[in-house]
Amino acid sequence: MENQTLDIRGMTCAACAQRIEKTVRKLSGINQASVNLASEKLFVEYDSSSLNLSDIKAAVAKIGYEVAEKPKNSDVTIPIGGMTCAACARRVEKAIGKLEGVESSSVNFATEKATVAYDPGKVRLSAIKSAIEKAGYQALEVNKADAADEDRARKQREIKTLWTKFTISAVFSLPLLYIAMAPMISFIRLPFPAALEPMNYPLLYALVEMILVAPVIGVGYKFYTIGFKALFQKSPNMDSLIAIGTTAAVLYSIYNTFQIATGHFMAVDALYYETAGVIITLIMLGKTLEAVSKGRTSEAIKKLMGLAPKTAVILENGQEKEIPIDEVVIGDVILVKPGDKIPVDGTVTGGHTAIDESMLTGESMPVDKKEGDPVYAASINTTGVIQFKAEKIGSDTALAQIIKLVEDAQGSKAPIAQMADIVSGYFVPVVCAIALLAGIGWYIGTAGDLKFALTIFISILVIACPCALGLATPTAIMVGTGKGAENGILIKGGEALETAHKINTIVFDKTGTITEGKPKVTDVLVAGGILKDRLLQLTASAERGSEHPLGQAIVLGAKEAGLSLLEAEQFDSLTGRGIKARLEGEEILAGNRKLMDEQNISLAGMEEISDKLAEEGKTPMYVAIDGELAGIVAVADVVKESSRAAIERLHRMGIEVAMITGDNKKTASAIAKQVGIDRVLAEVLPQDKSNEVKKLQSENRKVAMVGDGINDAPALAQADIGIAIGSGTDVAMESADIVLMRSDLMDVPTAINLSKHTIRNIKQNLFWAFGYNVIGIPIAAGLLHLLFNGPLLNPIFAAAAMSLSSVSVLANALRLKRFKPETGKR
Predict the structure, then answer these.
(1) pLDDT at 145 (0 to 100)
(2) Domain HMA, which positions (predicted)?
C-alpha cells in the first residue's frame, strides 16, 4: 500500500469533494480516499502494484478538476541571461548535460530558462550554474521557492483575483440594484433619471439593466462553466445551484425585455436582472471572505514550513561557503553561528552551545548541546559556535516529518463528519428537486403566476449551502491540530482527536513518564560478609549488558564510585524479573523477589529492609551470588515536577488515573502516593501491559495509555488513544495516536482539553450548518407565506444568507486559535 497527498484545484463546495471521493474510490486498488475541502487536498491509500498514481490523477481530471503537479526535489528551473538565438540554447544545454549527475537538461530559448533534472548527491546546483557561466551566459537567481511559499503565493493570488472580481461585480450591480429598486420605493422620493422612468421608457430601462448585468455575469462565468458541467455529468454542486437560479432569472428577464420590445409594456414589472447581478456579487463576496478565512485555518502549518532557513554555511576544504538549503547533502559539515537557524538535522562534531528547540517541542528553555548531541532543522543557535554533520535533509528532517504528520492529520476525517458527508452527497440533487417541485407547486397554486413561482425557485436554489456542511469539520480539525502542533502536541488524525475527548481513564507508564527515567543508586546493603564496593562492582558488571534504566543506573553508580567493571562471561536478560550473568566463575543473579523465588533463594533478614526501601519510593534489587543472597542495591527515580500538577488537573477533568509498572507493589504505591494516582498496576511484565489496558476497557472505560518505551508500544496500540512522550523511542511514537514533543505531562490534559474544544467546535459548526439549511430552505420555499400569509424571501437576501453561512462556520472554527495550553496552575 502506498500513501499520497494530491493538491486539487477547482473545488467549490462539499459536493465537489464528495464527487472526487466517490470517483476515486471506484478505482480498482484504492483502499482509502479522503478529500479535505478546506485544504484542497486528496489523501489516497492505494495498491501500487495494481494502480498507478497517474490513473488516479486521470480519474480526477476526467470529472473536471485539476491535480496540481509537485516538482521533484532534484528538478530545478534556472533563468538564463545572455542568450541571443537557438544555438545559444543548444550550447547551454550541452554544457549542463556534460556534468556528472545531470539526468536531463532542456533549455527553452523563448522563455530563457533551463529545466534540469539532477542527482543532488553527485552534483550541486552551484556546479550547474558554474557550467552555464563558463559557457558564457548568466545563470540568474533560481526561482525555486519552497512548497509553502508557492502555496501561500497561489492562495494570495486567488484572494486578490476574488477581490477584483467582487469589486467589478459590485461596481455594476449596485447601480443595477438602485435602478431596479428606486422606482418601487414610494415612501421616499429617490433621485432618478427621467430618461429611465420604467413607465415612460420601459425598453430603455430594460436594456440598461441588461447592459449592467452583463459584466457581472462575465465576472462570475466560472459559476456557469463549472456548475452546468457538473449538472450535465449528473453530479450537481453549489455552482450548479447558482448557475440554474441566476440563468433562470436572466432568461426570464430577457424574455420580458423581448415582450416590451414587441409592445407589451407591463412586462417591465417582471425583470429579474438585478436579482441575478446582486446574487453573483454577494456570493463572490462570500467566496472571497471564505478564501481569506480558509487561509487562516492553515496558518500553523505555514508557520512550521516557514521556519526552515533558506541557506546553510558549509565547511569545504577548511573554507566557509554559503549555499542554498536545497544543495546540502548528507555528510556535509555545517557551521552555525549564534543567532542562526540550524538548516538540517545532524550531530554536533565540534563546539558547545544552547539551542532553542521551542519550534519542535514548545519548550521555551534552550537546550545545551555538545559534541555527539543531535540538532534539528529550524531550531535556533543562541550562544556558541558549533559544527555539525548533516544526517537528515529535505523531507527526512524532524521538522519535515512533523509537517507531514500535521498535514495528514488535517486531511483526515473524524467519525463525527460521516453524517455531514452523507448529507453533502445527496444535498444538491435534493435541493434542485425541492426547488423544482416548489416552483411548479406555487405556479399551479397561484393560477399561473410565473413571477411568484420563479421567486420561490431561485430563492431555494440560492439559499441552500452545501459549503457550510463541507467546511464544518475539516476547518475545525485543521485549526485544532495546528494549535496542537504550535504547543508541541502532534495529533495524528481526526479519529484520534475525536476519541480523545471521550477518555475517562488514563494509564501512565512509571519510568520515564511519571518519573524522570534517570534513576540513581541510593543504597547498597550487604549480607553474608561481602564488601559494599564488591557487591556494587559485581552487580554493575553483570548489568552492563542490560538496557533497562535500573541496570544502567547501577552501572553509572559504580563508575561514579570509581569501580572498574569486569567482563561478563555469560549474560541473560530475564524479562520482567532481572538478569543472570557469570563473572570470574561466579553466577550472579540480580532482580526482583519473583526472580529470587524462582531460584529458591532465601530472603531471610532482608525482606523487611526491602519493604522499607520500597515504602520510601526506592526500587530494591536483590543480588545473589552462586545461589546465596549477597545483598540489595536500591535505586530511586525522581518524579517529574509536572507529574503531580498534571494528575491533579486530570482529576479536575473527571478522569481516573492509573499507573502501570514492573516495579514491586510497595515502590509503585509510594510513587503513586507522591503524585496522587488512583489505581496502581504493579509487577506487570512488559508483554502484559496491553492485557492490563484490555481489562480496563472491559470495564466499559475509554482508556488512554501514556508511555515512552519500546515495551509500551503494544499497550499504546491497544488503548483507545496511545500517547507517546516525545523523548521516547521511535517505536513508541509510531504506535501512538498523539505524540507529546516534550516530556511535560501537563501536555496530556492539554491534549484532552484541545480535543474537547475542537469537538465542541465541530458540533457547533454542524448545528449551524444543518440548522441554517433546515430553516432557510422551507422559508425560501414560501412556508411563512403559506401558513401565515407572511412575506416571500427575496432571492437577494437568500444569497446574502447563503454567503454568510459559510463565513460564520469558518469564523467559529477560527475561535480555536484562542485555545490556551494547561499551565499547572489552579
Answers:
(1) 40
(2) 2-68, 74-140
How many other C-beta atoms lie within 10 A of the C-beta of residue 689?
27
CA-CA-CA-CA dihedral for 357, 361, 365, 366, to nearest 10: -20
| CA 46 vs CA 8, 30, 424, 538, 613: distances in Å | 18, 4, 25, 56, 56
Residue 124 confidence (pLDDT) above 70: yes
- CB atoms near residue 255 (< 10 Å): 12
Q: Write out pLDDT tens, residues 309-361.
A: 888 999 988 888 888 887 888 888 999 999 899 999 999 999 999 988 876 66
Decide if 311-391 and 516-638 have a common fold. Answer: no
Which residue, among 601, 590, 602, 576, has the nearest Cα to 664 in the 3D structure? Answer: 576
Give the list of residues 6+ apart from residue 329 with CB closer than 8 angstroms, or none.
Answer: 120, 121, 124, 390, 393
| b/e map 344-354, b = 16+ CB within 10 Å | bbbebeebebb
| Catalytic positions, written as ranges | 509
Instruction: Give φ, ψ of 699 to 5 degrees.
Output: -90, 20
Beta bridge partners of 515: 639
How far apart (Å, rounded) are the C-alpha atoms in residues 819 and 481?
11
Alpha carbons 213 and 193: distance in angstroms, whole number = 19
What CATH topology corresponds to 75-146?
Alpha-Beta Plaits (3.30.70)
Poorest-confidence range of 293-297, 394-398, 487-491, 738-742? 293-297
The C-alpha cell that represents 194 in the structure block? 427621467
CA–CA gap between residue 157 and residue 154 (Å, rounded): 5
Q: Where are the domains of the chain?
A: 2-68, 75-146, 152-302, 311-391, 397-489+749-825, 490-514+640-748, 516-638
Mean pLDDT is lowest, of 232-241, 433-442, 534-543, for: 232-241
Residue that the C-alpha cell 459590485 belongs to: 170
Q: Tell me: the pLDDT tens digits for 29-86?
A: 898 888 888 778 888 889 888 888 888 999 998 888 888 765 444 567 788 887 766 6
Instruction: Supply the DSSP string of 133-198, one letter for each residue.
Output: HHTT-EEPPP----HHHHHHHHHHHHHHHHHHHHHHHHHHHHHHHHHHHGGG--SS-----GGG-T
The string of pLDDT tens digits covering residues 656-706 is 999 998 877 887 888 888 889 999 998 887 778 889 999 999 999 999 999
Q: Which CATH number fits domain 311-391: 3.40.190.10, 2.70.150.10, 2.40.50.140, 3.20.20.70?
A: 2.70.150.10
Residue 132 near residue 92, CB atoms below 8 Å: yes
Compute CA 587 distance to the chain's CA centroid, rounded to the nearest angstrom. Answer: 54
User: What's the CA gap between 684 and 691, in Å, rounded?
Assistant: 10
Q: Which helix (H) or strand (E) holds 16?
A: helix 14-25
3-class secondary-structure state, position 43 = strand
Farthest-apart Cα atoms in the chain, separation:
125
| Least trusted range by pLDDT, from 414-423, 426-435, 482-491 | 414-423
Contact 22, 230 (CB under 8 A): no
Count Cβ atoms below 10 Å from residue 712 Cβ, excluding itself: 32
Determine the pLDDT at residue 144: 42
**H-type alpha helices, 341-417:** 358-361, 398-411
At 142, the pLDDT band (50, 70, 90 cuts) reads low
Which of 362-371, 717-726, 736-745 comes out lowest in average pLDDT?
Answer: 362-371
Nearest to 551 by CA among 484, 617, 441, 635: 635
What CATH number labels 2-68?
Answer: 3.30.70.100
Grid look-up 513518564 returns 513
% of the chain beyond a pLDDT of 70: 91
Under CATH, which architecture does the 490-514+640-748 domain have? 3-Layer(aba) Sandwich (3.40)
**Residue 219 pLDDT > 80:** yes
